[in-house]
Design a protein that fits this description.
Elements (H helix, E strand, L loop, with lengths): L11 E5 L27 H15 L3 E5 L9 H9 L5 E6 L8 H7 L3 E5 L5 H8 L4 H14 L2 E6 L10 H11 L2 E5 L11 H6 L3 H9 L5 E3 L8 E5 L3 E6 L12 E4 L4 E3 L8 E2 L8 H17 L12 H4 L2
Parallel strand pairs: 1-2, 1-10, 2-3, 3-4, 4-5, 5-6, 6-9
Antiparallel strand pairs: 7-8, 8-9, 10-11, 11-12
Helix pairs in contact: 1-2, 1-9, 2-3
This protein binds S-adenosylmethionine.
Length: 320
Amino acid sequence: MIVDRLGRRFRNLRVSLTAACNYACTYCVPDGKRLLRAKHELPATKLLKAVTMLQQATGIDKVRVTGGEPLVTPKFDEFLLGVMRLPLSDVSLTTNGQLLLAKKDVIAESSLSRINVSLDTLNPLRFKQIARGGDLDTVLSGIDAMLELGLKVKINMVPLRSQNFAEVPAMLNYCLDRGIELRFIELMRMGHLLHSNSFTSEFVSMESLLDSIGEHHEFVRTDAPYDSTAVRFQIPDRGVFGIIANESEPFCRACTRLRLSSDGFLYGCLSNANKHYIGDMLELPSHLVLPKLQGMLVQALGDKKLAFQGEVTVMKLIGG
Ligand code: SAM
């Protein structure tokens, strides 16, 4: 097994099916830009082979399907059904939810049991301002459809000081009422935010979030798994919420994540632009792939930082 001096190893793989997205969220995409697919994206068969090889090379046992927006690509169905057949302990999906109704049947067929939907607001106008694409009601209907299918749903919200921070109590109530775990993601210093004043003005810390929630609810901190990115809190008799507090309480020292981009690059760290191309080795027979892959994984593990410093890399490219 490949382990670094902090005892970190790769256990969770995030696979970006495509860099394309039907949204252009203000904090993810610079003004005037639209997200297109990467130039040489791998087909579902190659991405599935990569998952199998990575599982053998490094003991990956959890996979998250992400993007870009994973539901916009035609390879979604084949990849989801294929990855669900692999001997993994957990498969999950992260989506903006816009196409959940359209993909309901294949999701049901796959037996996927949990899903994360990114949703920053319950206000239709603000939704248009932040996501710059899609439609709020369609997302809410998609969430209802997933709950009806019996999936465990989590919602990811990025609180932004001037845009949706005041909505934190309403979002939390919406989730608690439906048995959904809300996860706040502290704004990350990535892509165009790395050198922008808007990072500082829009950032909402864990402390501010807890102050805001504390005005409405009593809560206690609960245990989270060793390599969980979220700090979790229990509201007695109501439910749980989490905060991915990459700035306030960084999780880098216990990070077990590895990312595979849609065009075949491995990324060992969100806070490091280093990448390692594995697309060409997927043509080789498996026994030749493994030793090459292991060498590359040692390098990717070495890319992991001790603290999140931000990077020019963008979530949608490397798999948020
Ligand atoms: N399209 C899918 C979705 O919306 O969930 C998957 C990709 S998206 C890049 C994954 C997550 O990254 C979303 O929850 C999004 O809000 C988050 N994200 C993107 N840029 C971010 C940033 N700078 N800081 C914090 N979260 C960010």
